[in-house]
């Protein structure tokens, strides 16, 4: 075992950067979140209130945005998992010559700017966009389907952007499964499907969990894509926080929402790591 | 229980032939080892039998069924891996039950057969553990129980003992042999350890570079090696450059260096040819010059080869000597660590008694200069 002193030394550079540029600003926001916003004059001096937090818990609009954000996180995680698993499996278990091209293919979108990628989806998904035009010309629909400024659009955009993270996590997990264990199942009478369901899938659970947590946390805190594909009206927590700060100048509300979002993320990571520990106990 | 037959079985990767036209039949209930250095093709053969590698040529038959093109799950085999390959997410019981469930065994019958298999490998009390809570030896025993529980037609072992420490390995050799005899399942055992192959097997197939060198009972492999490779691979050989002096039936006389001439039981070369002379270390008897060797020690006294002890190394049960028999010719001789021959100091003049059965003259591996 490494002495604690050495471990702390190794952590020190990153720890200092995080403390200075993340922890301190966040803690400075904490008092703000208990402040009171007076329209026209800013934050009232010497007034402390729980009202910002109470509003998040009780106001129907805020609650809708919170549920929408969580639902979006869950949806994007699931969609990435379902779309990503076969690709990850092919990268991990397919022909060796496919591996590098496939990984490049998966990673390639990450080389493009987020705004460009989101804008690309606007071109595709808009009312007079490529998808609707094509469907109408084929005579499959008569009026454009609403693909943007709603859940569909935001989910498509975010799934596209966060899929690579899921795939890379899954590839690592699947490559970690010894091939002998799968071969053992086969010699014991398992068909290819049964080998997958009874061995490969359960043994890749840690990767599924890690990938899902990552995509979930990235999704619920995403700003640019929901902003562009959700438009000004279809809001998630990140865009709501942005508006509170920049448009309404209501810093106390924005701060309270930020803390609520951070707490939700921490809570979910905590719960999943407990779950992971229970699974890891088996794997 | 079935026979296992290879008919001109071969495997190539591109232009590289890793297994060349192997034909043999393993009898019902027989324990056969494939022995050879790494890369000799023995594991490829085993994986072809298991259905994990597709043969390039030839056929594999279990009993009279041609299984060459069957997927692994329809071959009815048990395979034990070097890496154990237990299902880490399943308990010992569920690991053993895995193959039984695939054969639609259920309920009380399932419980009974899992218990039976675990009892056979003496792990009955570990049924509820997870694999990671077991030692390497215990994990390998679970893997063996898992393989035999569905009563496979053929059992395959892929270097199953190589990851265990020496003492445990010897225990497991005996245990495995006993287990195999009790259940009577036809067994193919792949190993690079000659001790393992010789102790456990009814017959041993020695392989090199994809070619079956000799397929015979252990005694024949040891005493009557069919090729230079086998002679040099089995036992503890001295390997010396020499020349064939005179052929006489299968054997004859060989010369090492300028003066040392020995009788050899097997010579695979014409008169006068340069040879690689192989002398088994453990067959050489040595005695200090002047010491009276007991008459039973050498019934038909051949005149000994004189030499000088250069080095003695003691390893418990055995003692090894490096003996110089002529200028530039050194031999390693091994003896038991008890008795007069066990305690010869460096510098002692000795007489070496080298029985012809332990001397083989084979074509040199590199062309003679």
UniProtKB/TrEMBL annotation, chain A:
<feature type="transmembrane region" description="Helical">
    <location>
        <begin position="195"/>
        <end position="224"/>
    </location>
</feature>
<feature type="domain" description="ABC transmembrane type-1">
    <location>
        <begin position="66"/>
        <end position="272"/>
    </location>
</feature>
<feature type="transmembrane region" description="Helical">
    <location>
        <begin position="68"/>
        <end position="90"/>
    </location>
</feature>
<feature type="transmembrane region" description="Helical">
    <location>
        <begin position="102"/>
        <end position="127"/>
    </location>
</feature>
<keyword id="KW-0813">Transport</keyword>
<dbReference type="GO" id="GO:0005886">
    <property type="term" value="C:plasma membrane"/>
</dbReference>
<protein>
    <submittedName>
        <fullName>ABC transporter permease</fullName>
    </submittedName>
</protein>
<keyword id="KW-1003">Cell membrane</keyword>
<feature type="transmembrane region" description="Helical">
    <location>
        <begin position="147"/>
        <end position="174"/>
    </location>
</feature>
<keyword id="KW-1133">Transmembrane helix</keyword>
<comment type="similarity">
    <text>Belongs to the binding-protein-dependent transport system permease family. CysTW subfamily.</text>
</comment>
<feature type="transmembrane region" description="Helical">
    <location>
        <begin position="256"/>
        <end position="276"/>
    </location>
</feature>
<dbReference type="InterPro" id="IPR035906">
    <property type="entry name" value="MetI-like_sf"/>
</dbReference>
<dbReference type="Pfam" id="PF00528">
    <property type="entry name" value="BPD_transp_1"/>
</dbReference>
<dbReference type="GO" id="GO:0055085">
    <property type="term" value="P:transmembrane transport"/>
</dbReference>
<keyword id="KW-0812">Transmembrane</keyword>
<dbReference type="InterPro" id="IPR000515">
    <property type="entry name" value="MetI-like"/>
</dbReference>
<keyword id="KW-0472">Membrane</keyword>
TrEMBL record, chain B:
<dbReference type="InterPro" id="IPR008995">
    <property type="entry name" value="Mo/tungstate-bd_C_term_dom"/>
</dbReference>
<comment type="similarity">
    <text>Belongs to the ABC transporter superfamily.</text>
</comment>
<dbReference type="InterPro" id="IPR003593">
    <property type="entry name" value="AAA+_ATPase"/>
</dbReference>
<dbReference type="InterPro" id="IPR017871">
    <property type="entry name" value="ABC_transporter-like_CS"/>
</dbReference>
<dbReference type="GO" id="GO:0016887">
    <property type="term" value="F:ATP hydrolysis activity"/>
</dbReference>
<dbReference type="GO" id="GO:0043190">
    <property type="term" value="C:ATP-binding cassette (ABC) transporter complex"/>
</dbReference>
<dbReference type="InterPro" id="IPR003439">
    <property type="entry name" value="ABC_transporter-like_ATP-bd"/>
</dbReference>
<feature type="domain" description="ABC transporter">
    <location>
        <begin position="4"/>
        <end position="234"/>
    </location>
</feature>
<dbReference type="GO" id="GO:0140359">
    <property type="term" value="F:ABC-type transporter activity"/>
</dbReference>
<keyword id="KW-0813">Transport</keyword>
<dbReference type="InterPro" id="IPR050093">
    <property type="entry name" value="ABC_SmlMolc_Importer"/>
</dbReference>
<keyword id="KW-0547">Nucleotide-binding</keyword>
<dbReference type="Pfam" id="PF00005">
    <property type="entry name" value="ABC_tran"/>
</dbReference>
<dbReference type="InterPro" id="IPR027417">
    <property type="entry name" value="P-loop_NTPase"/>
</dbReference>
<keyword id="KW-0067">ATP-binding</keyword>
<dbReference type="Pfam" id="PF08402">
    <property type="entry name" value="TOBE_2"/>
</dbReference>
<dbReference type="GO" id="GO:0005524">
    <property type="term" value="F:ATP binding"/>
</dbReference>
<protein>
    <submittedName>
        <fullName>Fe3+/spermidine/putrescine ABC transporter ATP-binding protein</fullName>
    </submittedName>
</protein>
<dbReference type="InterPro" id="IPR013611">
    <property type="entry name" value="Transp-assoc_OB_typ2"/>
</dbReference>
